[in-house]
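Posting here for the record, re: nicotinamide-adenine-dinucleotide.
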Amino acid sequence: MPGMCDYSGKKVAVVGCYSGIGHATAKGLLDLGAEVHGADIRPCDLPLASFTECDTRETGSIDGALKAFGSGIDAFFYCSGLPQTRPPLDVLKVNFLGLRYMIERVRPKIAKDGSVSLIASTAGNGWPQRVETVTDFITTADFDQGVAWAEPRLEELGDPYAFSKEAAIVWTLRQSADFIRSGVRLNCLSPGPTITGMTPDFDSVGPAIIDVYTQPLGRRSTPEEQAWPLIFMGSREASYLNGCNFIVDAGFTAAMTTGQIDLDALLAEAMSADA
Ligand SMILES: NC(=O)c1ccc[n+]([C@@H]2O[C@H](COP(=O)([O-])OP(=O)(O)OC[C@H]3O[C@@H](n4cnc5c(N)ncnc54)[C@H](O)[C@@H]3O)[C@@H](O)[C@H]2O)c1
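Prediction output follows.
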């Protein structure tokens, strides 16, 4: 029996491989013997089979990367993302509209029994509270219609990061049945606070507030601690895993949903610490 997550000879693509979780994912896949094709708005320092500069806010740029990847992809990973400090429409484009555009178009290029894995976030945990609004957004016909839907609603949607992550989760859950019928698995990873390129942006609300979301463990994740579950999710060993929102937060969501954490008290304490 080959070792777990044997990617030797597998063709994979990682979008968002310049830094953070995407970089750790590309590195992990290289270590496992994969032929790794990468794309990002910034260059990647890893010895990839190919790298294409790609801005996932632009459909034309996404088309270019897809062309460079070619077909017969065994596992596709979408790891690009923007934090809440960036222009709201850019956040919605990179974290959802570009993601959806790219995954819809990469789908016919995925090999039989292949996989698509994307990164959402525990910041999207609130999706059940406004699933109808999220569904309106994710069922827009295409990238431009998605922009047209979102643009006049930016204020009422609030934090664009949380909304984009809710969209990524609900879209994964809804699309996964159709994907697996055509032989492709679709899953998302929802990390808790992770030390990456976007850490300073998240910390701008106050580092002690972000640290609240590291309970009950009390420390942030490394990029590798997110990359390995993501790599597993995309592997042949996960062949029955589909439509899964894989929450990798050291138990924060579990503790919250079972009443083990007094979030309001912890946040009040954190706010006075950050003040
Ligand atoms: N860091 C955290 O605490 C955390 C928590 C939950 C979820 N996430 C998610 O993990 C994913 C990876 O982010 P990260 O934490 O590794 O941060 P990161 O900033 O290190 O990585 C983000 C990557 O996206 C790329 N990118 C940004 N704009 C782009 C664009 N227009 N086109 C193409 N690529 C673009 C960046 O160059 C970078 O390589 C994101 O979806 C993020 O929202 C992060």
